[in-house]
Amino acid sequence: MIHYKTLLVAHDFSATGSKAFSQGFALAEQFNATLHVIHVVEYLMPLDTHLGMVSPFENDLTEVLLDNARKRLLDFARDHGMDDAHCHLELGSPKHEIVSKADGLKADLVIVGSHGRHGLGLLLGSTASGVVNHAHCDVLAVRHGG
Question: What is the domain range of residue 84?
Answer without folding.
Answer: 1-44+58-93
